[in-house]
Amino acid sequence: MPCKEEAHSRLHCHRGLRELPPEPPKRDHWESSALLGSQIRARQYLSTKEEAAVKIQAWWRGTLVRRTLLVAALQAWVIQAWWRELLWRQMQKLQHILLKVYVIQEQAAVRLQSCVRMCRCHRRYRQVRSTLCALQAPRCSLPLQVGDGPQEQPAGAVKGLEFHVEILSI
């Protein structure tokens, strides 16, 4: 009949579990020290392998983190570029509106100045006309005398009214 340990180890192997290593047989002092040295070397070898594996894993995790940060930075850059473009377009619209308002105000000022100059011209014209009518009115009411016929005007005399109109443009 098999012993309990064999049945237990078979059960573990059957389940796919790792089998426990057998206990080393009892040895004398010299054999055990040689065995201990080889175990120390084996552990050192495993520890250097583990250190290398840890370094490789740390490098890989760092690479993944840098890749993730790069993707996030690129996405932030795209959003910032979109936002700057949006602000630039809004600024362009505002400048366009302000330019339209400025042009409208300038045109209104030019029209107003034109109307004021026209009113001054009309006022001056009416003033000169009323003065001339006042000067001519008494002559018409007087009876004609012999020397009152049409008279010739000197060669350099100005006929009619003269108006000096200055057109200022901006």
UniProtKB/TrEMBL annotation:
InterPro entries: IQ_motif_EF-hand-BS, IQCF. Coiled coil: none annotated. It holds the Pfam family IQ. Transmembrane segments: none annotated. It comes from the Eukaryota. Gene3D superfamilies: 1.20.5.190. One of its GO terms (molecular function) is calmodulin binding. Signal peptide: none annotated. This is IQ domain-containing protein F3. It comes from Phyllostomus discolor (pale spear-nosed bat). The lineage of its organism: Eukaryota, Metazoa, Chordata, Craniata, Vertebrata. The gene is IQCF3.
